[in-house]
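input
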Amino acid sequence: MIQIENSVFDYSDPAVILIFLAFVVATIILILLIIAVRAADRSARASEPLAHQLNYLGQTVQALNQGQEQLRGGLQTVSDTQTAAQAQVIQTFEARLSTVQQHMQDRLADNALRSQRSLNEMQERMRESLHGSSKQTSTSLTQLQERLAVIDRAQDNITKLSGDVLSLQDILSNKQTRGAFGEIQLHDIVGKALPRDSYSMQYTLSNGKRADCLIHLPNPPGPIVIDSKFPLEAYEALRNADTDYAAKQATAQMKIAVKKHISDISEKYIIDGETAEGALMFLPSEAVYAELHANFSELVRVGFEARVWIVSPTTCMATLNTMRAILKDARMREQAGAIRKELSLLVADVDRLGSRVSNLDRHFTQASKDIEDIKISAEKTGKRAHRLDNFDFEEIEETPETAGLPLPKTTPTVE
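output
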């Protein structure tokens, strides 16, 4: 490469080569001209060599012209080749650019298709999610409606129960209706625990007093009375007391009322020779029973001293089950003679059955022996029949059964 000021020239550039050749030719021509000028003086002396040199110079110039033409052709070839190469490069670039554009278009189409598919899937999932959410919401609303319906029914039941509680309060606030309520509850408990013929409701005693229930127990202990009329006014006052003074007053009234009720039961329902030596005071409420045993133990002791036993629905059921066992034992004792008679008849039947079984066993033993004898006779008969079938008369042994039987004689026949 040659750098002249700010211009750079490459040796491989055809223009540079052409300029170089032109410079060389010009230099040669200049040299030849100088030589020709110098030889002008010697032209006279050397015209022939000059002519020869001119001829040579003409040939050289012709060769230079031919080389210049060849150089021009080479430059044209190089230019054509460069143009073709540029065209091929441009064509290749366009082909690659087209391929890249097609690839890009395919990629864009694929991406668009994937985006559309993803969008469709997302829409489908959102639709399913919305449908599931709608279905769950509908189910939740249905369940909510069912629960609201259950709550409405429960509210109705609560309202009804509130009315029943108010009715129960009305019943318990009235002494007569409270006594009827206790009698009904007592009747239900006694009816479940005892047989129907073992108790009487509203039984009138010899002193003219009417007992709520009389259990017909045998002596001892004898019939026992159960009273169901308990004074709940004092208990209600004690429960509703909101001050210490009211609580003390209610406690005193409670003690007085319960002691009086225990005394009344002892005087009315314990009769010597007619009833048992004690009676039962039935409390229709477990709360009252727990209150007495927790905070009024002296009243319980007063009941023990008066032989009046305080029972609640639960303890009354346990007591009645004990009475049921006593009734069952008494009835067993009452039926002891009949049971003993039946047992003696049963023993006789068993003895009779044993003798009959012995007779049957004896008959079976005799029948078994007879069957064995029959089997022996059948075996012997079979053996003799087999020997007779084979004409083995000489092998027949004389036995006690066949000793007196003569063998039949056979006479030969001549044909």
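quick obs: Strands lie at 2-4, 7-9, 199-204, 210-215, 224-227, 279-282, 308-311.
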